[in-house]
Amino acid sequence: MEMAGSRENARESASTTCSQARPVEAARPGEVASPVESGHESLPAGVLGKTRDRLRANDATWLAYHLLHRATARAGRFFDARARARERAKDLPGVNTRDYNRRLWTDYDWSRSGEEWTPSAEWRQSLVDDVLVPALPQDADALEIGPGAGRWSGELQPRVRSLVLADISPAAIDLCRERFAACDNVSFAVNDGQHLPAVPRESVDFVWAFDVFLHIAPLDQRAYVSELARVMRPGAVGVIHHPGDGGSAEGWRSAMTGELFAELLHDNGLLPVRQFRSWGPGGRFELANPGDVITEFVKPRAM
Ligand SMILES: C[S@@+](CC[C@H](N)C(=O)[O-])C[C@H]1O[C@@H](n2cnc3c(N)ncnc32)[C@H](O)[C@@H]1O
Description:
The protein folds into 2 domains: 4-90, no CATH class; 98-298, Rossmann fold. It has helices spanning 4-21, 43-57, 60-90, 98-107, 121-135, 153-156, 170-179, 218-231, 258-267; strands at residues 141-145, 162-167, 186-190, 204-209, 232-243, 271-276, 278-279, 285-286, 292-298. The protein is elongated. By secondary structure, the chain is of the alpha/beta class. The structure holds S-adenosylmethionine. Residues 1-45 are annotated as: Disordered.
């Protein structure tokens, strides 16, 4: 299983080794070498030399903007990482409160049915053929969390015995009700963003959530995983797309990590099967955000 956490560790230790060994000249093109990036003996000459070159080629105001940009960007990354770590440690929702999500996705313009997040027809088809279908048990009772306007529900509905669509946004569920009005194997639930009261214990063979857990705070994901352990039948499979990197520095993405998600599964008696971010022939297709992963997991038969 490819674990995002171990990738983070690998990246961290790789960059530590590189930063100790990298001479000033080897700083990335277009960047001023920092004290950490450069060997301290050659630091003053390297930094001053590059700064002088840039000042000569530009002007003092440009240089001030450039240096301020670099310093504030670095400070921004630092403070965002602290905020995200605090969300995880103290069970804080950050910007991803349930009220915010309910409002955001109720006021959202759904006129493109979520296809605005589909990079290409080939990408979409491969996600269905190479990720969704291989994980889907035969004749399954399925649950989708956060269907939005039904971008993936339309793929699930003809392939399953029954499908429950649960979304925090009443507007999303209204759209799904309209879209699947003629399908007697689909049922609908507006939920509180944490729990699945409409779904009975051990009634589900397959769980799907794509482009949803990016918006859900770790504390709510914890509640969902505990609910999944309740509603999944032994042998059931789940496929959930979520941040693997703690939310990166983009502000709005959930602070979830690949490691923490796997830990939540274990805590609830569920087993991660694999975490991945590319699929299809030769791993040709990948998640739009480099920090995201998909976790596939099962509820073991003897639990
Ligand atoms: C970016 S849209 C994706 C919709 C759909 N999955 C797709 O890929 O087209 C996010 C969806 O997740 C829903 N959502 C956000 N937070 C949720 C939560 N805590 N529980 C259930 N649904 C949630 C939103 O209402 C919205 O429908």
